[in-house]
């Protein structure tokens, strides 16, 4: 079983590079199942119904998200109607949407869970308590967790705590791909951040000019998504017939 996880898809450049590269990647790596973080796909903030449909048309099985999941007005109108768009499980239970769901692929039960960290992030519930509650009744063969968090230490601590209890802990949110992909001692695959599928020569997806203005002067500036050509960042998980991760491969395609 080969699972491709695509890092934060950012605005039009992210959509364009997926349209350009994804089919070839699926063929090259014989991908069976695709997960993509789509929380920045719509103009850099959130995911609307049109862009949800775009990702599904590209063959993506599950879409995860993060702190920007509800930044587009229409998300609340359709997220409860679908099972393949997740919001962080440890957000308020009053919010619509699911944070974890079980999917079937090639006679395997694949659970995908979306969680958010708490350091330097909007307030959410304890992610350890959330994942523990999911694991109590989980009967999946493969369990992939998208941990959407800012701090590298928080991501690493979470991964080590659940080593051997989940298949993979894949970090998202910082938009910078890290070079620390590894299989931990008890078998869980981990990377601090999968990276951004979006524009090159940008500051985590937006034009540098507005960011520089704010940093230099302290003035408020509207960040504008860059329209530069993009790159696709992701990881491939090669999983054996007995559901063990054999290899985690970092991917960066321009």
In a nutshell, what does this entry contain?
This protein is α/β, with parallel strands linked by helices and 254 residues long. The protein has helices at residues 11-29, 49-57, 75-78, 127-136, 152-161, 208-217, and strands at residues 2-6, 33-37, 62-64, 100-105, 108-116, 142-148, 168-172, 182-183, 189-191, 198-199, 230-239, 245-253. The longest helix is centred in the N-terminal third of the chain and has 19 residues, at 11-29.
- Integer-rounded radius of gyration: 17 Å
Q: How many domains would you count in the coordinates?
A: 1
Please state the average pLDDT score: 97
Q: In CATH terms, what is the architecture? A: 4-Layer Sandwich
Unreliable spans: none
Strand content: 25-35%
Helix content, binned percent: 10-25%
- Helix-strand pattern, N to C? EHEHEHEEHEHEEEEHEE
Distance between the termini: 25 Å
Please outline the major beta sheet.
6 strands, mixed
Secondary-structure class: alpha/beta
Please give the oligomerization state of what you see. Answer: single chain
Name of the CATH superfamily? Metallo-dependent phosphatases
The total strand number stands at 12
CATH topology: Purple Acid Phosphatase, chain A, domain 2
**Which class in CATH terms?**
Alpha Beta
Shape: globular
Structure characterization notes:
By secondary structure, the protein is an alpha/beta fold. The chain contains six helices and twelve strands. 24% of the residues lie in helices and 26% in strands. Strands 1, 2, 3, 10, 11 and 12 form a six-stranded mixed beta sheet that branches. It has a six-stranded mixed beta sheet with strand order 4-5-6-7-9-8, with helices on one face. It starts with a strand and ends with a strand. Helix 4 links the parallel strand 5 and strand 6 (142-148). This is Putative metallophosphatase. InterPro entries: Metallo-depent_PP-like (IPR029052), YmdB-like (IPR005235). Fe cation 1 binds at residues 8, 39-40, 175.
């Amino acid at each position: 079983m080969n699972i491709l996880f695509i890092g934060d898809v950012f605005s039009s450049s992210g959509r364009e590079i997926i349209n350009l590269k994804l089919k070839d990647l699926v063929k090259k790596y014989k991908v069976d199942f695709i997960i993509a973080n789509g929380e920045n796909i719509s103009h850099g903030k959130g995911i609307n119904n049109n862009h949800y449909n775009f990702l599904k048309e590209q063959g993506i099985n599950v879409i995860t998200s993060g702190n920007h999941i509800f930044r587009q007005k229409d998300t609340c109108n359709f997220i409860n109607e679908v099972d393949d768009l997740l919001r962080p499980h440890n957000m308020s239970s009053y919010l619509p949407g699911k944070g974890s769901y079980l999917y079937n692929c090639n006679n395997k039960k694949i659970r995908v869970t979306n969680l958010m960290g708490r350091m330097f992030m909007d307030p959410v519930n304890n992610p350890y308590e959330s994942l523990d509650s999911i694991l109590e009744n989980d009967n999946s063969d493969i369990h992939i967790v998208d941990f959407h968090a800012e701090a590298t230490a928080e991501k690493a601590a979470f991964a080590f705590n659940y080593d051997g209890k989940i298949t993979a802990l894949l970090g998202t949110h910082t938009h910078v791909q890290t070079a620390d992909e590894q299989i931990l001692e008890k078998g869980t695959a981990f990377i601090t951040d999968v990276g951004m599928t979006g524009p090159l020569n940008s500051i985590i997806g937006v034009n540098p000019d507005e960011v520089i203005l704010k940093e230099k002067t302290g003035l408020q500036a509207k960040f504008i998504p860059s329209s530069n050509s993009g790159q696709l960042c992701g990881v491939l998980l090669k999983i054996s017939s007995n559901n063990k991760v054999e290899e985690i491969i970092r991917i960066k395609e321009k």
